Amino acid sequence: MMSSKTMAYACVCCLFFLFLSFVAISCEINCQVIPHLFAREPDIYIPTDAGSTEIWTSSSNEFQCAGVQVVRYTIKPNRHVLPLYVNADELCYTVQGKLMFGLIVPECSQELDGEKNEYDEIFHLESGEVLAYRGGETFWGYNDGNETCVVIVISRTPNTDPLRIFCLGGPQNILGGLSLEFTTNAFNINNELATKLQRKIGRKHNTICVTESELHLSNSPTTQPYPKQDQRERKGSYNINDESFCDINTRMVKISDPSRADLFVPELGHFTTIDVHQLSIHESSQLSISYNLLLKDVMRLPHWEKSYSIFYVVKGEGHIQIVSDSGKNVFDDIIKEGQLLSVPHSFLIAEQAKSDRFEYVTFKTNANPITSDLSGRNSVINYLPLEVLENAFNINKEEAKMVKFGRKETSLVKTYQNISEEEILN
């Protein structure tokens, strides 16, 4: 007779695998007509002894059309994320805390010499940092701090494949699917040890391959680059001829650091975009990210992106308006901490901070994103001839001047800073 607790775990497990089955089915979706957008909370919440896994499913048109999967992981102190790999290129942003992180890049891994080198690259991923890694690259993590760690991960899966997580150890141990004979031959070990390797330990609903056991390493984490290899030893189709490919510092960026900002105005805020040229990840991943911080009542002037944009609110709240190609307002609402909003390719976006600090990241489905401002100093409107503005909006020359020269700021403005008609014309 199953206990109520065991039955609950089984139900959660079944729900999760039903979700995977659902997203694995290629269904017809309509990306041409999007009547309304929504700020979304996670659709699936899976608690674990080590924290939780929260999933925004791809069942909605916004996420299916963007071709992304988004997961938020919460990892308690002294919890070990077991070695795993996924079938998708990913960007990982640390919302809170820090995580000891190990990454193995096949092209850069060294041939082991006994026990001289036990692992490739170990470092700390801290709050405000973004990390890029490719599908098939093995990684693991350990929360060695005193604070719960929260990370948000976006995956760009190939074609219509669902996100698949392959764990080494734990309840979904992929070695458990091999025969005992294959395992003994693969590692040149006896049957007893092979049986231990194949064990599936833990509850199946634990989808992030986490164990409660503490982890003790003989060496401290480092952020030193991989040693340079002979060019003839390198392999793969990625641009790894540059030594920087094997330097973890080119995979990980403190994107929230104001000194990196593309635009920084102390009294208004700042934003930074990190693209494929600043992260050693292949351009085929088609992923980039921007960090945005707006102070209270500051507006990010209307703009559009050459990509889908997946907003995730880190702190605070803001008012966002979005307009489609039909000229219809498809979103006009407050988006709050922890919520996600998917914006279709090239839709017009405007954001305004409603709290003291509105902090958010935007994942973009383009390795080289292009942002076009509609108003402000370096905007489309500013570069259009007055005569074109007159004809486009059926206004006179003086009104066209007001539209063209009304905002002299770049991208960020305080919303009460309205310029007078006399100041504009002069």
What's this model, at a glance?
The protein is an alpha+beta fold. It is 16% helix and 34% strand.
List keywords for this structure.
426 residues, alpha+beta, seven-stranded antiparallel sheet
3D structure, described in words:
By secondary structure, this protein is of the alpha+beta class. 16% of the residues lie in helices and 34% in strands. The chain is built from eight helices and 25 strands. Strands 1-2-3-10-5-8-13 form a seven-stranded antiparallel β-sheet, with no helix packed on it. Mean pLDDT is 81; it is low at 4-27, 111-119 and 223-241.
Kindly provide the radius of gyration, computed on alpha-carbon positions and rounded to a whole number of angstroms: 24 Å
Outline: elongated
Contiguous low-pLDDT stretches (5 residues minimum) are 4-27, 111-119, 223-241
Main sheet? 7 strands, antiparallel
Number of H/I helices: 8
Strand content: 25-35%
Number of strands: 25
Cα distance, first to last residue?
84 Å
Judged by helices, strands and strand pairing, the structural class is: alpha+beta
Could you tell me the mean pLDDT? 81
User: What share of residues is helical?
Assistant: 10-25%
Order of the strands making up the biggest sheet: 1-2-3-10-5-8-13
